[in-house]
Structure formats: structure tokens, C-alpha cells
Amino acid sequence: MIFDLTASVINGVLVGAIYGLAAIGLTLIFGVMNVINLMHGATIALGMFSLYLLTTAVGLNPYLAIVPVLLGGFVFGVLVYWIAVHRVIGSSDLMTLLATFAVNMIIIGVGTAVWTTSPYNVDVSVPQLAISMHGYTIPGTQIVAAVLAVILATLLYGLLYHTRLGKAIRAVANNRAAAELMGINTRWVLAISFGIGIAVAAGAGVLIATLFPFTILSGANYELKSFVVVVLGGLGDPAGAMLGGIVLGLIEGVTAPFVNVSWTPVIEFTLFVIILVLFPAGLLAFKWGRK
Amino acid sequence: MYKMFAGVLLALGVILPGMALAQKTITIGFTTSETGKLNADAAPQLRGFELWRDQVNADGGIKAGGTQYKVALKHYDDQSSAGRVQQLYTRLILQDNADFLFSPYSSGLTSTAAVVSEQFGKIMITTGAAEGKTYKLGNRYLFQMYTPADEYLTSALQAIKSKDPNAKIALVYSNDGFSKGAADGAAKAAKSMGLNVVLTESYAPNTTDFGPVINKIVSSGANVLIGGGHYADGSTLARQLYDKKSNLEFISLLVAPDIPKFASLGKAARGVTVPSQWEPTVAYKPDFGPTPEQFREMFQKKYNTLPGYHAAGGYAAGLVLQHAIEQAGSIKTPAVAKALNAMDATTAYGHIKFADGKQDHGLQVGHDMVLAQWQKGDDGKLHSKVVWPKSAANAKLVFPLTTYHQ
């Protein structure tokens, strides 16, 4: 039992780090521009298929592929922002929700036409890093993906808190009008923030695709988990999102030995409601009932 | 007056030939999942329907009561959604005037379509839908092509018993109607065979991280695994069983390993078995229609890929309907239903017989399953081989897998 639990805890933390990275993209966009990005899942799926194309067509190492995917994701995000999101920023929440949902439907539609909904697989293995104990194995790919997720999250944290651009992003997130009065070009800051959010989601897609087969619809599952994670970590808080991801991964791992795993989603979403009621500002806020 | 008479004649001249032409076409309506999560499984089934239609029409159509009927397929994309199925089957019957129906892919969508087809008294040949529950609700016009779900894993259990009667079995399955039906049937069959099931675990159909499930399998001490669900979860489970070195001696998963793309999992696919409705290498001697070999060649020529059982099921659904219409000598529903009730025949897809009692009308009782296994061939590539029952096998079952993977 003790080995089962240990393996489940390790598995939970490793998978949770990737959930955390995926959620950072969602929470960043919400924090800066108050947009609930419903194309988040489709972007994760695009990241997965980008990895597939870069490894099969170009022959790139799967872990090096993350660099072009991040760059491509950023450019794609900025483009989507100018085309579909910018015009509806500041209008009702429903408008931004519908705008991103529309882009989501376009990506899923085109993706289904090109790749169908058949699963694709990227053959990655890092056997030298695999850990085995008493019949339980933690694959090397899972360790590498979690480490890369933490590195990417740390780099993003550094960008937000230790660079001029990061300061501008945080200023716009706090008070857009005041940031404009201080001479910050908020339109570009919003576009760049959206681009970063999309790039991070696509990067998370790459890491997930090194672990599991995927379809163009796979992102929806992670989008749903990302919403739970950002509520756990606090909307708009990247550090909280990483913590929330790890908490979610741990819940999935640690509950499994005790209950049937088909109950896991029920437990996750019950927790979602409880956190919303008791900690509406996220676990890091520690203020009961604060709005 | 003369002009009016000429006008009426002219109008009749235009309309009547059109009416005569329309009477020589039968419309078969169905929905298929061109988009959504069932797309990968539904696409080959559609190809099966279309190949049959093209061949029937090339041969002049279906002969019934001295009339040749060309076949027209009318289909819509159901987006893998039950809501769309309900809407579209109503449309197929009321607006498109479909004479007969085929089912959508999957047990869930078929049970929704069945409510509509029965309401309007239309014959629906169901394929890609193995759950048996739908046929126990007193329906009169449903006819099932697939072996029912509760018998799916029986061949795997027989193979396990022959190799290791003391096997510790983990029964791990997706929490959807079809997979649950298959797992319930397997649990009963295992009990009656005296086999030891040490773990019974279900998971949500959209599960992607099977780490917690695999840890449970290891903890249970199981040496064989049966279960799974559909393609997406089954292929993910197979890959993680390999990545996590689960050391299982036998793995049998529903549906996923029967799709040729499963081989793209590489080493993770090796040795995995699948209960299959049909395999291209079977050797049935058909009472009507092409032999399995001829069907395989025709399909491969048209689509450049080998047919799996989804495609064979689709093709055979058309073939069975055609045979029933020809036997009935009519396209009227009661006559064709009577011919279907009496059917007891073998096609390229295998033996077909429908239950005709009130309790389980339309349930497939004639068709047998085989067990296929992905094995490495002399060319170094993976090939799907029939390994059970021994009478239908074209390769030996690899057991245990632990040495095979080394």
C-alpha cells in the first residue's frame, strides 16, 4: 500500500505540473484582459499536432520542438487577438466568450477535416530516466515533461516579475486606464499577453503529446481541468495556477487507491464548487469568503 | 379547350416518367459521425455502406417483384451527438422519405435512433452497435449485425483459460454503455469458467492519464488485463501500460486494437489482443455476396487500405438488407421484416441470425467473434493475426507477453 501511495503521489505531482502549465495560459489571459478564453483547449490540441508535424515531417527532437511551437503559438495568439478579440475587449463578457468560442470551433472544424478525430501518437521514450520501485514505474518521459513544465512556468514568472514588459503586463492587469496614463501602449500589451497565453497553452500541448496519444478534441479535457486549476489557484495568478495544477494532480493520484477512478471527475468538480464557495480568490489568497 | 388538353398532356408527359423513375430507387437513410469523437470509428463503416451501394448499382440494382431498384444513400453528419441523431432520423423518415434505415455508429447513438425508427415503423439494420439492451425493449424493426457486447470478451477469457487457468485477471473498462455491457458479460463468463478476477475498475471515457489505474493493476497482482473502451482511451491505455512497464502477460482491449492505426503505437501495440467481429483473414463460405477475400480486395482497391470490422459490418448490413428484399420480393416493411426474421445465412462477414422472440427481437444470435493479436511479422512490421478460436486462427497466441517484449 505504501509503495502504491508513493507511486500515486509522484504520478500526481508530475502530471499536475503539466496541468499547471496548461492552466497558466488560461489564467494569464483572464488576469490581464478579463477574457475567458474558450479556445484554450483547441490551442493545446494545436500544440500537440505541431509536435506531431515537427517530429514526423521535419524530424526534430520532440523536446526541441517546444521552441518553435512556443514562437509559432505566440504569433498565432497575437494574430487571433487582432482579428477576433481586440474589437470585443471591453464589451460584455459574453462577447469575448463567443469570440474565442468561435475561433475554437474554427480550429476544431479545420483540425477534424485535416486530421480526423483519430488519435495520433508521437513515439518518445527516455528509458534512462525511468524510475522503478516494487513493480511501479515512473516513465522518463513523464519526469522530463514535468521538469520542462516547471522550467517554462519559472521563465514566465521571471518575465512577468523581472522585466519591463512584465511590469507593463501587470500594470495593465491592475488598471488599464492608469497604465495608459503612464504611457503604456495597452493595445500591444494586451496583444502580447494574449500571444503569451496561447504560446504557453500550445507548449503544454507539446508536453502532453510526449506522454499520451491525442486527437484534435483532446484539448477539451485539459481546458476543463484548467478551469478547475485556475479556480484552485486563483483567477489571474500564474504561481497559483502551478500550485493548483499540482493539487489537482495529487487529488487524481491519491484518491485512486481508495475509490473507483471513474469517481475522480466527481471529486474534482465537487472540490471546484467547495473552493468557489470558501476561497473565491484561490488557495493562495487564504481569505475566507473574500470576493 | 384544345390548348388546355395539350397542356395537361405535356404536364403528364413531364411528371409521369419522373414518377416511374422515382419508384425504381430505394432510399436508405442514416447518420454518420463525420465530426466529433466517433469520427474515427464511423468513417470505415460509411465506406462499407458506400462500397455495397456502388456494387449493387453497378449490377443493376436490387431485384424485387420484377422491379430493379437502384440504391440511394441519404446521410447526414450527426456530430457524434445523440441530440442530432434524434433530429436527423426524424428528418430522414419524414422529409427524405427513407425506405429503410441503417444505424449510426456506436451503441449510444443507435439506441437514440431506434426510438425514432420504431416510432415510425421503419426497418433499421444496426451495425457498429453491440450493446444488447436496446433489443430487449420490445422493438419490432431493429436487426443487429454485431455480436452483442456481453459476449465480446468471452473469446479472450477462453484463451486465458487455455494458457493459464490460475490467471489473476484485472477487468478495467470505460464507463460507457457498450464497454460496461462487455465488462458485465465478461465478469459473468469468468465466474462460470472458474477464472479469478482480482480487480474490477471502471474509468471515465475521456480519461487520458491512466497512471492511477495502472498503479491499481500493479497493486492487485494481476497478470492479465481485459477491458478498455473505444479507440481514444484504448490506445492511450495501451501506450501507458507499455511506458509504465506493467509486465502483464496478456492484454485484451475492446475496439481500439482492431483499427489499423493502432499499429502506430509501435512496441506498445505489440502483443495486444482485440476481440473482433471480423478479420480480413477469416475463411467463411458465404451463401450470398462476395467471399471475405473478394471483399477485402474490392475494399483495398477502392480505399487503399485493409478493411477492419467496422467496414465489414457496414458492407454486410447492406448485403443482408438486399438479400431480405430479394427474398421478400417487395420493399414493403412487413414483408422485408419477415424475411429478416427468417434469415439464417452466412456472408463474408460471418453467420447471421436474428432472435425473433418478443423479449429480444432483432438481437444477433448467429455471429461469432474471433480474437486477433498484433504480432511482429518477418518484415519487421506489426500485423494483426487471428489467434482464437484455434479453428479460425492463422497464428499462435503469444503468451506470456513479458518475454515477447524483451
Q: Topology, pairings included?
A:
The complex is a heterodimer of chains A (291) and B (406).
Chain A: H1 2-33, H2 40-56, H3 66-85, H4 93-115, E1 131-133, E2 136-138, H5 140-162, H6 164-174, H7 176-181, H8 186-209, H9 219-233, H10 238-255, H11 264-278
Antiparallel strand pairs in A: 1-2
Helix pairs in contact in A: 1-5, 1-8, 1-9, 1-10, 2-4, 2-8, 2-9, 3-8, 5-6, 5-8, 6-8, 9-10, 10-11
Chain B: H1 2-22, E1 25-32, H2 39-58, E2 62-64, E3 67-77, H3 82-94, E4 100-102, H4 107-119, E5 124-126, E6 142-144, H5 154-163, E7 168-174, H6 177-193, E8 196-203, H7 211-220, E9 224-228, H8 231-243, E10 250-254, E11 273-276, H9 292-303, H10 309-328, H11 333-342, E12 344-347, E13 350-353, E14 370-376, E15 382-388, H12 401-404
Parallel strand pairs in B: 1-3, 1-4, 4-5, 5-6, 7-8, 7-9, 9-10
Antiparallel strand pairs in B: 2-3, 11-14, 12-13, 14-15
Helix pairs in contact in B: 2-10, 3-4, 5-6, 10-11
Tell me what the structure shows.
The complex is a heterodimer of chains A (291) and B (406). Chain A is 70% helix and 2% strand. Chain A is mostly helical. Chain A has one domain (2-278): ABC transporter involved in vitamin B12 uptake, BtuC (Orthogonal Bundle). In chain A, strands 1-2 form a two-stranded antiparallel ribbon. In chain A, a hairpin with a 2-residue loop joins strand 1 and strand 2 (136-138). Chain B is of the alpha/beta class and 406 residues long. Chain B folds into two domains: 22-147 and 282-353, Rossmann fold (3-Layer(aba) Sandwich), CATH 3.40.50; 151-276 and 369-404, Response regulator (Rossmann fold, 3-Layer(aba) Sandwich). Chain B has helices at residues 2-22, 39-58, 82-94, 107-119, 154-163, 177-193, 211-220, 231-243, 292-303, 309-328, 333-342, 401-404; strands at 25-32, 62-64, 67-77, 100-102, 124-126, 142-144, 168-174, 196-203, 224-228, 250-254, 273-276, 344-347, 350-353, 370-376, 382-388. Chain B has a six-stranded mixed β-sheet, with helices on both faces. In chain B, strands 8-7-9-10 form a four-stranded parallel β-sheet, sandwiched between helices. Chain B has a three-stranded antiparallel β-sheet with strand order 11-14-15, covered by helices on one side. Classes of the chains: A mainly alpha (291), B alpha/beta (406). Chains A and B meet through helix 1, strand 2 and helix 10 of A and helix 2, strand 8, helix 7 and helix 8 of B.
